[in-house]
Amino acid sequence: MAARRVGRKVIDWAAFAERVPANQKSQFNALKSKADALKTKINTVPEKPLAINWDMYKQSVPVAGLVDKFQKEYDALKVPYPKDTATVKVNAQEKEMDQDVAKFVAESNKRIKEYEAKIEALNNMVPFEDMTVEEYEDMYPELKERKKKYPYWPHFPVWEL
């Protein structure tokens, strides 16, 4: 029989739920309910099977030696516990994902700083109402090119907007 009880690991579902994206909450809830059902089912089964009362069978089975033969074979039977081959792969994937997350966070922080700088520049610029056309064209050079192509600005084909 198995030497140790299956399912002894405890999962921190709250920490797990924090990492689940909003579009995958239903899949997460389905996984959690399946895991809870399996845990409940495992907990209802005793850790060690009940002992077989061989004496009762010896009294009730009329064939001599049959129960002794079964008892000998039963005692000789050893069910090997399966080896854990997935934990190494999962730990490697976890380390790889941690590196990816750290890289993503660093890149996101860099983008946040860039966006904050852009916001700061927009907050410090002259309001559009007080801006001259030349200042506006300096700020957006692509509009200057459009004005060269269509000198009667702001009249230009609508499909080029």
Automatic annotation (TrEMBL):
The keyword Ion transport applies. It is found in: Mitochondrion inner membrane. One of its GO terms (molecular function) is proton transmembrane transporter activity. One of its GO terms (biological process) is proton motive force-driven ATP synthesis. The keyword Transport applies. GO terms for cellular component: mitochondrial inner membrane; proton-transporting ATP synthase complex. Gene3D superfamilies: 6.10.280.70. Mitochondrial membrane ATP synthase (F(1)F(0) ATP synthase or Complex V) produces ATP from ADP in the presence of a proton gradient across the membrane which is generated by electron transport complexes of the respiratory chain. F-type ATPases consist of two structural domains, F(1) - containing the extramembraneous catalytic core, and F(0) - containing the membrane proton channel, linked together by a central stalk and a peripheral stalk. During catalysis, ATP synthesis in the catalytic domain of F(1) is coupled via a rotary mechanism of the central stalk subunits to proton translocation. It comes from Holothuria leucospilota (Black long sea cucumber). Belongs to the ATPase d subunit family. Its main location: mitochondrion. Pfam families: Mt_ATP-synt_D (PF05873). InterPro entries: ATP_synth_F0_dsu_mt, ATP_synth_F0_dsu_sf_mt. SUPFAM superfamilies: ATP synthase D chain-like. Keywords: CF(0), Hydrogen ion transport, Ion transport, Membrane, Mitochondrion, Mitochondrion inner membrane, Transport. This is ATP synthase subunit d, mitochondrial.
